[in-house]
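Listing S7. Sequence submitted for prediction.
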Amino acid sequence: MLKIKIFIATVITICAVTTSIINGNAQTEANSNVIWLVEPQFDDERDFSDGMALIFKDEKFGYIDKDGKLAIKPQYDYARFFSEGLANYEKNGEYGYINVKGDVAIKPQFDGAFDFSEGLAYAQKNGKWGYIDTTGKFIIEPQFSNVGSFSENLAYIKKDGIYGYIDKTGTIVIKPDFDDAFDFSEGMAKVKNKDKYGYIDKKGKIIKEPQFDESGSFSEGMAKVKKNGKWGFIGKNGMFSVDPQFEDVDNFSEGLAKIKKDGLYGYIDKKGKVVIQPQYDSAGNFLEGLASVKTNGKAGFIDNNGKYVIEPYFDEAGFFSEGMARVKKDDKWGYIKNPIVVEKQSQSLELAGQCVGELKSVSKNELIVAGKDIASKVMMGDKLCIYSGDNIIILRATFPMMTTTKCEVSSGSRDEIKPGMKVYKYKKLKKDNK
């Protein structure tokens, strides 16, 4: 009888744990601020985007939602994250797109394809690249040997071996004149000539002659550059705001940038002052008030004062995106929730100057955001965010104007949105897709 009771208790325990993992019920790790959305069980995964996260299990790609539930079962040999409501996938060697319900939105028909940005995605036919809209129709016919996503209404293209930029009609607005080119960010784009990097504005004017060994895109008014083997930062005037002195750096995010000195990582502010001393073996960018850092083989999360919010516990950790971060433990990936209160998250964005305005009106079909100089801060397709209660709500700018911008809800509950709420530029790190 005792053995039967023990067996039943064991079965109940196993079932409870299994249900928790499958359904994604939040579980808090004792004394560590770890709040599980989904406990580690995936072979690989990606950050949340548009309320969905790409997961990889049993050699197939699928998606989970922000409740931790399986939204689209693993079934794809290749897939990417959602962008503007669509995700790229491959079937039988051809590429198409699905929507967040898992329905085919654009049937597989392209030799290659990439994510949507500002309403367009680049796709390949017969060895050439062009741009399609959300119906799969080519708006700019395939004609280029290499291209990039639209950013601030411009996209780089390669033709006859050199790079220039086109607008959304396919018209060349910055003539091909560069050995390499990259996306526009904050009105500037880095370009490469003769193995050196410099910067141009949206008219194609050289702001900083190519002279750097390496460089990055502008973020929060500054760009990382490498000269004579050391990294520093320049402002939009092309002048050094932080002299080259570091072994490694990354873009500014929420007012801080990670730097590497004497083999260890720390953080500086925009004046170049070290605010968190180099002490970590590796480090990530600040997003949603936290940054992942790693010491002695374990990763945790710190706040912008350098205080551990989540002690080193994981084998690997990413950054927070839409309230969740991917983490790895015992060779499997899972997701945790951001444990800090949304008030502190919004304070981080406020201090970093990321507030773009307030919600002016809320209707069934659209949201209107108004703010001073909003036209210079928000571009079509930009992600914005609102904090409501304990939740972060992600918006996407659909029609920016001079004093207002129309938006739609990308992730979160519309019912929690009210006029007068502050709206922030949502920081989504973008890597050069080369």
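Caption to Listing S7: primary sequence and predicted structure tokens for the chain studied. The CA atoms of residues 317 and 327 lie 4 Å apart. Residues 1-25 have pLDDT under 50 and may be disordered.
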